Automatic annotation (TrEMBL):
Every Helicase ATP-binding domain range: 16-187
Natural source organism: Scophthalmus maximus
EC number(s) given by UniProt: 3.6.4.13
Helicase C-terminal domain boundaries: 198-366
This protein's name: RNA helicase
Length: 371
């Protein structure tokens, strides 16, 4: 895979995950630093290929992420021919109820995996000896995911090794994780370590959405040097923006929540292979998606929570789609009101990082840096 040395999280987490007797782990590491590879290696090392039943269960919040993690496991496991993987995702069910899966590793989304454990009984939860929660904070903080994950968790034995990973853990979520995971090893970042120095962050002031669109068109040279992701707050804004860009003659892909999971996976595959250089999307795509060539993230709308405050976690995940594994990346935030300027200040304060003003006249300099 061209990996020369482990990243810090891999170096720290692997010995803990592989130790005997098994130890639990709650681990935080910045986006794009190889968490997926770390727990994939742990699962591949953990299973006994002679046992033809599911031993490792990994759940992640979305269909796309489950597919992506599965691809990493398949790639890393290519020389372990006796270790097999099944995808516990919607639509993937061809067996008779009660027939047990022979694949040692299952990666899936919480609803389907829960059904596989309870309704269809494809998996015997009592035989699971390693349970991995990717994007663990969102799995805990989102009620639907939390209920389903806890229902799976309750069926596991108390000896099952639990591994929780994410780039962000809000304080309350961390406390909850510590209650659910007995006696865990802990790898936790200090707040100022959460952002990556290889991602330069900027903001641009534009009043109306049409001004933002004009600024984006001026930025288009930068967007297409490598690949870019543009985040909007709503599906309708993402649809409007991609239609406008297409009308201007730009080639962009749109990915939003109302599409079927198969359509979404197909859009991501095309983007991953560089068929489109620009992806317009919503928060549905803010986490985990790993496309190495993404060098620019644009927040067409800033991430805000229900109360209109800065959504710091989403911000970090969104900008983390660039700057993967030490690569250089840029994040540009579009500021359309005093309120959104306020949000920029909140994000700066939260992470103790400066977000600099970028004038449209600076775009050329940025283009040069990108190329
Ligand atoms: N040791 C390594 N050497 C080089 N590249 C690596 C190494 N480990 C992982 N990578 C690559 O780094 C990229 C990011 O890894 P990965 O997707 O696992 O990050 P992550 O920490 O899970 O990110 P996120 O928080 O966004 O989910 C991937 O393309 C992966 O192939």
């Amino acid at each position: 895979m061209g990996f020369n040395r482990p990243s810090r999280i891999q170096e720290n987490a692997l010995p803990m995950m592989l130790a005997q007797p098994p130890q639990n782990l709650i681990a935080q590491a910045q986006s794009g630093t190889g968490k997926t590879a770390a727990f994939s290696l742990a699962m591949l090392s953990h299973v006994n290929p002679a046992n033809k039943w599911t031993q490792c269960l990994c759940i992640s919040p979305t269909y796309e992420l489950a597919l992506q993690i599965g691809q990493v496991i398949e790639h890393m496991g290519q020389f372990c021919p006796d270790v097999k993987l099944a995808y516990g995702i919607r639509g993937n069910r061809s067996m008779e109820r009660g027939t047990k899966l022979q694949q040692q590793i299952v990666i899936g989304t919480p609803g389907t995996v829960l059904d596989w454990c309870t309704k269809y009984k494809f998996i015997d939860p009592k035989k699971i000896t390693m349970f991995v929660l990717d994007e663990a904070d969102v799995m805990i903080a989102t009620q639907g995911h939390r209920d389903q994950s806890l229902r799976i968790h309750r069926q596991l034995t108390k000896d099952c090794q639990m591994l929780l990973f994410s780039a962000t853990f809000e304080e309350s979520v961390w406390r909850f994780a510590e209650q659910v995971v007995p006696d865990p090893n802990i790898i936790r970042l200090k707040r100022e370590e959460e952002t990556l120095d290889n991602i330069q962050q900027f903001y641009v002031v534009c009043k109306e959405k049409e001004d933002k669109f004009a600024a984006l068109c001026e930025l288009y040279g930068c967007l297409t040097i490598a690949q870019a992701m543009i985040f909007c707050h709503t599906r309708s804004m993402a649809a409007w923006l991609s239609a406008q860009l297409i009308r201007e003659g730009h080639q962009v892909a749109l990915l939003s929540g109302e599409m079927t999971v198969e359509q979404r996976a197909a859009v991501i595959e095309r983007f991953r292979h560089g068929k489109e250089k620009v992806l317009v999307t919503t928060n549905v795509c803010s986490r985990g998606i790993d496309v190495e060539q993404v060098s620019l993230v644009v927040n067409f709308d800033l991430p805000v929570d229900m109360d209109g405050h800065a959504d710091n976690e989403t911000y970090l995940h969104r900008i983390g789609r660039t700057g993967r594994f030490g690569k250089r990346g840029f994040a540009v935030n579009m500021v359309d009101s005093e309120r959104s300027m306020d949000i920029i200040h909140q994000i700066e304060m939260h992470f103790n990082r400066r977000i600099s003003k970028l004038d449209t006249s600076d775009y050329e300099a940025m283009e040069n840096q990108l190329s």
